[in-house]
Write a structure and sequence with these properties.
Elements lengths: L7 E8 L3 H12 L3 E3 L2 H6 L2 E8 L2 E8 L1 H6 L2 H9 L2 E8 L3 H9 L7 E10 L10 E4 L12 E9 L1 H4 L2 E8 L32 E10 L5 H12 L4 E2 L6 E3 L5 E4 L9 E9 L9 E4 L2 E6 L4
Helix pairs in contact: 5-7
Length: about 300
Amino acid sequence: MTVNSLLRLRQICLLARDLEWTSNLLCAAFDAQVVFRDPRMAAGGELTNTHIRLGDSFLETVSPSDFAWEASTTQTRLLERNGDCGYMAIVQVPDVAIASQSMAAQGKGIGMVSGGLVECPGSPGSGFAGVKSRRYVVGEPLPKRDGFVAGINVQFHPSDFGTLAEIQENWPGHESFPRNKGAYFPAGNSWQRDVDARPHGGVTTGFAAVEIAPRGIDPAEVCKHWQQGLGAGCWIDEDQPAVLQLAAGQTMRFVEPGTDGRSGVIGVDLWNVPGATKKFESLDICGVTWRLVEPST
């Protein structure tokens, strides 16, 4: 079965009460560093965040502000119910105009819950000066103009996808792997400068799989929602109806919640650095079980 090489699990997002403690723990565990803190998110007053680069992938942690706790936002209520937890799975798509429409039609058809278009003069790695953003309209194509970098993100409701789901298309250069240095706006526009000097740390080269436990819906049905939403280029083996195959050996696994009741993103597999001794088999951080697995051949 042919898999579209652009359909990749590109980012995982966590939700934590203590941003600095959690980020420092993740950096130490995965031998990686924070490459971006989104000033636009902080300016909104409700959330702060960090992005850690794992090879070509990114691990984001978001944390509510004091204002958010006073206002009782979605994020604070989730933390009160689940504690620190996995929050979102982000997949890179080849054409966000097509994928946004098909993702919006899945399940109950709730559609987009959030979406934005970002455009900035310059090139990948040139920074954020002059950046402009606006709300995204489902079905709108990503603008691709010479002298500019651009990105679109669209989020969909957890009840249809087992967790908060996001698709991303960025331009230019998101088709090159490994050592990708193309545009990827969730992590800013300067992380590219360090890729050649340090493609990855000594623990992992990036994501191998995400494990999602839907709440109140059959895992195989949720898997089908993702497959139909992402469209041609990902596939489901009939012998594993709750496992979605993406590019480069990546998978999305959908399982029943365990006895602890955790739902959403509950596990992440990371590719071990080729030829290196594993630093661990598995560990639990921020309500997520992290496993090191050997690279696919």
